[in-house]
Amino acid sequence: MAYSASKSIISLAEGMPNEETFPFTEISIKLYDNSSFTLDKKELAAALQYIPTQGYPPLVQALREFQRRAHAPPLWESRDIVVVSGAQDGVSKVLEAVIGTGDPILVPDPCYPGVEIVVAPHQAEVITIPQDDDGPAPEILREILRSRKLSGKKMPKIMYINATGTNPTGIIIPLERRKEIYHIACEYNFLILDDDPYHFMHFEKEEPRSFLSLDTEGRVIRLDSFSKVVSSGIRVGFVTAAAPLVASVELHLQSSHLHAPTLSQVILYKLMKMWGYEGIMQHYMRLRCFYKERRDVIAALARKHLNGLVDFNVPKGGFFLWIKVRGIENTWKMMMQRGITEGVIMAPGAAFMTDTSKPCNAIRASFAKASYKDMDLAMERLAQLIRAELTKNYTIENVDSR
Ligand SMILES: Cc1ncc(COP(=O)(O)O)c(C=O)c1O
User: Fold this and answer.
1) Predicted structure pTM score
2) Domains contained in the chain, number
3) Ligand 1 pocket test: which of 89, 196, 227, 229 has the largest number of ligand atoms within 8 Å of its C-beta?
4) Long-range contacts of 344-348 (CB under 8 A, 24+ apart)
5) What Pfam families does its record include (predicted)?
6) CA of 131 to the centre of ligand 1 (A)
């Protein structure tokens, strides 16, 4: 109320501290192209203060305009946006709004582990949908839903999807598959939570069309994040969904951290305003080139060192190479024990399985940060690990039960 009230109203209503007591008097930010911006007195006061839960109003407006232009979502007037503290916050706020105790949820297998940690305390029934090279298999999804309905089981209200540059598999769900999954969602009446932090970090010629852009029934909840494209420490993401769903997330935010960090939101607003839509897209293009080169390097190194030992698809987006090891049922011990002692850390595939006790022959390697020299060494060490595992040519210490 205080935020939107006219200036003639005197408010003694809110419990905000007085900004004059804050020790900061100026914040200036320099960008990589040597341009810069400074938060003026008014902006700084706003940046250091409580704001409405939905987000810093000018940023919320800028994000609305951005979403409209980037995705042209149908039913735009019935949707809204709420700023959250990154995509993970969005995942947890949305799922907690939708999932009741013991409710079923559809997730791709393998899956980003940030989903399981949210739904496990609610004893959700996780229904896994196996993935092929194009993402969750629609015919299996449909069959699972059909037989659940026939047997009178509780039907899922939501499916979690990570459509572009999927973590951990690096795929992009093609448009036809997206349409098919959306169609099934309409048929069986469930929501789609599209956690899409790598949307602008694809390595294809064409921009992927988001689930939001296909959503003619208001059943897609879209999560965006600035983590991968501006800064992960800034902790800002945003949820775009049907207005009542956004209102639920807002209420939940009020009960947890009131709102996402104001300073981060004001900085992002200034950046968006300074760059404009075209400038943001140019920045995303620069990121794509940066990570695409890294993707090409890791793929070449994997071919060089792991030839004949593994299978992998070249990632189409995101940060990860998903390597399937031949002749090894489970990579867990190899990576978690021997990998560490041999000086190479990569994530074992079982970490992305809903049932982590099940064996998985895959490994997730990130190409986002390591130097090319380190990537080369890591692949060389991985090849040694795999060869030793295949011939059992090592000594076991501290065997982990997995
Ligand atoms: C698929 C997916 N969702 C969510 C997140 C969390 O991102 P954020 O930093 O925006 O919370 C990640 C981070 O790795 C991710 O890969």
Assistant:
1) 0.94
2) 2
3) 227
4) 344/377, 344/378, 344/381, 344/382, 344/385, 346/378, 346/382, 347/168
5) Aminotran_1_2
6) 20
